[in-house]
Amino acid sequence: MPQTKSTLSDAALRKLKPTGVRHEINDSVAVGLRARVSAEGRVTFILKAKDAANKLQTITLGAYPHMSLKEAREGANQARLNLKAGKDINQEKRQIRRAGAAESEEVTLRDLLGEFETRFASSKKTWAPRGPRSERSGARQVIERVYKELLDRRVVTITDEEFAHATTGYKRAKPKDGKLTANGQASRARGYLGPVLDWAAGRKIYAKIGASRLPRLGVVSLVTTHDPASDDPTIAGKRTRVLTEAELKAVLPYLVYPAPKVGSLRLEASRDYRPIAMRFLLFTAARLEEVCAMRWKHLDRLNKVWHKPSVKSTKGGSRSQNLPLSDAAMSILRGLPDWECAKPTDLVFPNATGERKLGNWTRYQKALHEVTSTNGWHRHDLRRTAATIMMSLKVPASTIEHILAHADPLKADNVGGSASHYLQLTRVLSNTRDPQEEALAVLGEALELIEFGAPVKRKQMAR
């Protein structure tokens, strides 16, 4: 194998390019340490040193950049001492791999779901515990319901045909609205389970070293299995539901605080923030998860701006949003009991305990449908309704897009990202009104006209 005389350094390692030829680079600091570069450019640290029997051994230390050069040098020095002491390092590694493989053979689907949930509960909302009375996540509950018969099987023995049969064969335990099939739920379970299996096998986004489960498992992929929602005409791929004026007139009086009595719900009115949270969602065209995650420290009361630390992004990395609020939206916040006494870290719309995010939406939504004689709409449809109202009132589509945070407005204008820090000062240093604030003010007046017959006249209140 070709060897080069170049000395290892972090700068040299970062600049390595694929050459089409496998070669090694010697290190001048740690004796015997080399960087083995594959034809494709992958770098692996190895040690070549003699053992106690004076036999040359090659020890694989780790891959760069998962293992740094400093760690490789330290590992090489320790491995060389172990070889001189008579240790068979490669044999020990083989035993560990065999033990890991044997252990992996015993991992059931239920075990794997628990591992994935523990690993990603803090970063993936669908894998976080659903509430104080349940330690399981929503994603895990759906998977366990659909793939119930496979949970205690060794996951490496389950075939894609068996996963497909469980997905397409899932039926409702109880009919809902006269429908026996549950293709929507089966589709969600399949969508949640796919990444779990990819993580276990080290596929797709989990292909990089350190991103997948270790040791990896030889599990199947769900790519070849059928999605039952794709040919179910009752499941819309994209929701287009918008509430009518009559429906808004029926619903808005119930979206207040304290919460009005709705159906058989027993939660104390002063502890139920779901109705007022839905009202705030409608008056800001925000996403439900953004409203539920809002904390008082995110609100700039002086300039009436809601800072969202993270908004959903379909492309690129995470980004934030500063949304100017209308007087109507600020009035909603001023009407909350914590307006004067809340701690910065407190949730604006907490659940009944006052410590966690709002939940149990399905039960409340069903009760709200019954009391308002409306049906077929979801919480997210309020956001779409708000956007539709603004569009019908001639608000520019670009302004609506900014409010909805579908894209970074600065990128659309080819402006550098750092400019956003300076543009925030325009509210203080100029007399121009933010187009988003104007749009949300128009939205608020329209909603109040629907609810009360005229926009609400507000008195100036201390901020």
From TrEMBL:
| A Pfam family of this chain | Arm-DNA-bind_3
GO biological process, alphabetically ordered: DNA integration; DNA recombination
Q: Where is the Tyr recombinase domain?
A: 238-441
Q: Does the keyword Ligase apply?
A: no
Report a single Gene Ontology molecular function.
Answer: DNA binding
User: Mind listing the UniProt keywords for this protein, alphabetically?
Assistant: DNA integration, DNA recombination
Q: Which domain of life is it from?
A: Bacteria
| InterPro entries given in the database record | DNA_brk_join_enz, Integrase-like_cat_sf, Integrase_catalytic, Integrase_DNA-bd_sf, Integrase_DNA_bind_dom, Phage_Integrase
Which PANTHER family does the annotation name?
Answer: PROPHAGE INTEGRASE, PROPHAGE INTEGRASE INTS-RELATED
Family according to the record: Belongs to the 'phage' integrase family.
Q: What is this protein called?
A: Integrase family protein
